[in-house]
Amino acid sequence: MNLEETVEKEHRTFTEKHPRLAETAKLYGRYLADTVKNAYKHVIGQLKDTRLYKGLFLDALGDINYFADAIGPGFAAAAEIGLDPIVGGLQVKAIADFYKKDLNWLERFLLQVIGFTEETIPFATDWIPTMTIANTYVHVKKTAKKQIGLMKGTLKGLYEIVTRPQYKFAEQPAYIT
Q: How many other C-beta atoms lie within 10 A of the C-beta of residue 15?
C-alpha cells in the first residue's frame, strides 16, 4: 500500500468515526483556501489599479522641493512656497475623484484635510505618501469586507454542523443521554 492509499484509508476511517469533525475541518479548509485566494486577488487588484500609479506621481510631485535643493537653496524654497499648495489642491481633487465610490464622505474629507495639510506645512511633512496611504486604505477596506463575509459564511456552516441532531452510535457511551 502506497502513501496515497494509506492517507485515503485513514481519511475514510476518520470521516466515518467523526463526521462532525471531518465536516468542520473541510469547512475550515475551504475558508483558508478562500482567504489565500482573496489575498492574492487583493495584491493583483492593487497592482492593476491605475489610481495607485497616479497617486505615486502626486506623491513624487509633492516631494519635488527635496530634489530642487540640489539645484540651489533658492529653488527649494520657491518650490516649497509655490508648488506645494498646488500639489495639495491636486491631492484634494484626486481623493474626491478617485475614491468617490469606495469611501464615505467623512473618510474622503479626513484624507483631503490630511493631504492638503501635509503638503502645505513647509519642509516638514512632504515625505509622507498620502495618496499611496489612501490607496492602500481603500484596498484593505475592500479586502476586509470580503473577509468578514467569508467568516460569516464559515461561522454559519459551523453553527449548522454543531446544532444538527446527534448521530446515532451503535453503542452509545454511558455519558450520552
A: 14
Residue 26 is which amino acid? K
Kindly state the average pLDDT of the residues 27-44.
Answer: 81
Is the residue at 48 inside a domain? yes
Q: How many domains does the chain have?
A: 1
- Asked if 37 and 55 touch (Cβ cutoff 8 Å), the reply is no
Q: For residue 135, which of 58, 55, 60 has the smallest C-alpha distance?
A: 55
Residue 176 lies in a domain: no
pTM listed for this prediction: 0.64
pLDDT value at residue 96: 92
| Domain-located, residue 68 | yes
- pLDDT tens per residue across span 131-152: 989 988 888 888 888 888 878 8
Residues 6+ apart with CB under 8 A from 21: 14
> Which three three-digit cell numbers place residue 65?
522641493
- Considering the domain boundaries, does residue 121 fall inside one? yes
